[in-house]
Design brief:
heterodimer; A: mainly beta; seven-stranded mixed beta sheet; four-stranded antiparallel beta sheet; about 0% helix; B: about 110 residues; mainly beta; six-stranded mixed beta sheet; 11 strands; globular
């Protein structure tokens, strides 16, 4: 059973609002990721982190930002939400090892911007 | 840039059938390949992980194979059940083990 948690699970907010999606894991994993997935579409990596104070942009350009102040916590922030940000956001984590790096996903956060 | 392709995009079978899902990738310089299951509106659950040095992995009714040189993997599901209905995703961990590249998935429906 993976110990990675995302909140909120579902959120509807108005255009221009600031939103932070929370992600926490209790497995002590160094690497954490944020993926974006539109319904029926593939996952796209938007941010990842190798550890504390490390953040990198992923393959898909995103207006969101992330921070990694603690190992277990990797929040994603949208400063001014727009309808184009409506999507499912999936957080994941893994060990930083080439041989033991199964990636574990949270349940996802569904964001709707109206 | 790594690209992962999954065939078929969707599959519908009656309960009890054995089935094969296919995954191909363009860059063979990978560390491992993972198969995931995703239920509607949920996150992903890891099913099997195959290291680049391995040829196959088995878990219960699932068997995954890897042919790194040809850039192919298959997920074999034996004696399918309605509870197997989900989207199955293949992902490769690229050289440098920084990030995973996902395929678009195969949507499986097993009817009673």
């Amino acid at each position: 059973e993976a110990d990675i948690y995302q909140t909120p699970r579902y959120l509807v907010i108005g255009t221009g609002k600031k939103i932070t999606l929370e992600c926490s894991q209790t497995m002590g994993h160094d690497k954490m990721y944020w993926y974006q997935q539109d319904p029926g579409m593939e996952l796209h990596l938007i941010h990842y982190s190798y550890g504390v104070n490390s953040t990198e942009k992923g393959d898909l350009s995103s207006e969101s930002t992330v921070s990694r102040i603690r190992t277990e916590h990797f929040p994603l922030t949208l400063e001014s939400a727009r309808p184009s940000h409506t999507s499912q956001y999936l957080c994941a984590s893994s060990k930083d090892s080439p041989t033991r790096n199964t990636i574990y996903f949270g349940e996802g956060s569904w964001l709707t911007v109206v | 840039k790594q690209e992962v392709t999954q065939i078929p995009a969707a599959l519908s079978v009656p309960e009890g059938e054995n089935l094969v899902l296919n995954c191909s990738f363009t860059d063979s310089a990978i560390y491992n390949l993972q198969w995931f299951r995703q239920d509607p509106g949920k996150g992903l659950t890891s099913l099997l992980l195959i290291q680049s040095s391995q040829r196959e992995q088995t878990s219960g009714r699932l068997n995954a194979s890897l042919d790194k040189s040809s850039g192919r993997s298959t997920l074999y599901i034996a004696a399918s059940q309605p509870g197997d209905s989900a989207t199955y995703l293949c992902a490769v961990l690229n050289s440098g083990y920084s990030t995973l590249t996902f395929g678009k998935g195969t949507m499986l429906l097993v009817s009673p």
